[in-house]
Amino acid sequence: MTASLTEHEDTVNCLTFSDDGRYLACGDDSGVVLVCETQDPSQFDRYHFTDSVTSLLWIPGTKSLHAGLANCEVHYLSLEDERAYRMDFRPVGYEEMSPALQELNQINCLAFDPVHSWIAIGVGVTTIVISIRDFTKNKYTELCAITPSSTNNRQFAQPSKALAAEREYGALESEILPRSGV
């Protein structure tokens, strides 16, 4: 073991290394993000947010970090110049939802496309794609939102294209487990 980080006081939900391996960022349920240097873990920065940190994303080639929160916010942090921005991706009617429904609509994951400078944001059952090409000017462009047409009547059927392992597992499952109509 190289080091043990004991600074979190709540459950750690996500971790990510910077692409150069110099930093490790980790976020927890209390809304704390710690960013430490991997060569000296005792050196760290602490950021406090208003809700649980559910996902983290380093932008490759930069000292920029995005933090996704349970309340549908994505925060941008720059370790170089201490800039910080907030983006809100709450679905329509979020404030009127029950706490259980709000929990289903949190930021679940973040992904970066370095070719186009796009970030994909998983919010509940929706994927939102934004361009951050001009993000240094504190703006972004939403390119698209991918939302299932109906989430109430989802059918869990075999995909039209399945990998060999998926086809094999599906066949094995049907031989072993009796199916009750879904």
Automatic annotation (TrEMBL):
Name of a matching Pfam family: WD40
Top-level taxon in the UniProt lineage: Eukaryota
InterPro entries xrefs: WD40/YVTN_repeat-like_dom_sf, WD40_repeat_dom_sf, WD40_rpt
Gene3D superfamilies recorded: YVTN repeat-like/Quinoprotein amine dehydrogenase (2.130.10.10)
Protein name in the entry: Uncharacterized protein
Organism encoding this protein: Candolleomyces aberdarensis
